[in-house]
Amino acid sequence: AQKVTQAQTEISVVEKEDVTLDCVYETRDTTYYLFWYKQPPSGELVFLIRRNSFDEQNEISGRYSWNFQKSTSSFNFTITASQVVDSAVYFCALSEANRAGNTGKLIFGQGTTLQVKP
Amino acid sequence: KAGVTQTPRYLIKTRGQQVTLSCSPISGHRSVSWYQQTPGQGLQFLFEYFSETQRNKGNFPGRFSGRQFSNSRSEMNVSTLELGDSALYLCATKLEGAGGYNEQFFGPGTRLTVL
């Protein structure tokens, strides 16, 4: 069975601190996709990044970076120099793949609430 | 290009009633998935529809059902509402392709409150 675990329920940091959100996943599939989403208070899910199981390259996008390690089944997300606007709930998710590519079924972690204080 | 539309945005019902939520996908998107988000259970997959057929199903009781129309619009229905059905219901739509990845786009959600 597929499972995503975000052990950190809530994290509170002071602005400009770096923060890492942990994500550990379980799957028996050899082809799968991993995601991070941000959910601000408005409720809409905002897509941040996608990684497929064959691409272990780390990625940096501005203040955001992601570390994907298949050996430890982890896909961690780091925000450098956090800002108040980063305050939100962050979800890690896993999607299985089929011949058509990815299915519409996402398995989400429980989410990590990040509070960035000024 | 218009995004995913969900109606209504807010809904209040009482226990025992039924409710129908609607999701209009982005033009050209034929896959529609539904998710339930509650404080206790988090974000959980309900079902996915493609070409008017249910393709995937989550672990929810039969009170939760859905359908998809020929124009790819989808509705989900919850019968005999319970207090625990109070949640944010999100739909997500995507293209279908012959292999490769197709990104899912989420709608703003319908917040259902059961009194």
- Total of DSSP H or I helical runs spanning 4+ residues of chain A: 0
Shape of chain B: globular
**End-to-end C-alpha gap of chain B:** 37 Å
Q: What is the helix/strand order of chain B? A: EEEEEEEEEEE
Q: Percent helix among the residues of chain A?
A: under 10%
Terminus-to-terminus distance of chain A: 41 Å
Q: Proportion of β residues of chain A?
A: over 45%
Q: What is the makeup of the main sheet of chain A?
A: 6 strands, mixed
Question: What is the assembly state of the chains in this entry?
Answer: heterodimer
Shape of chain A: globular
> What order do the helices and strands of chain A follow?
EEEEEEEEEEEE
What structural category arises from helix and sheet content of chain A?
mainly beta
The average pLDDT score of chain A comes to 91
SS elements, strand count of chain A:
12
Describe this structure in words.
The complex is a heterodimer of chains A (about 120) and B (about 120). With about 120 residues, chain A is mainly β. Chain A is built from no helices and twelve strands. Chain B is globular, with a radius of gyration of 14 Å. Helix content of chain B is about 0%, strand content about 50%. The termini of chain B are far apart. In chain B, strands 2, 4, 5, 6, 9, 10 and 11 form a seven-stranded mixed beta sheet that branches. Chain B has a four-stranded antiparallel beta sheet with strand order 1-3-8-7, with no helix packed on it. The interface of A and B includes residues 50, 101, 103, 107 and 110 of A.
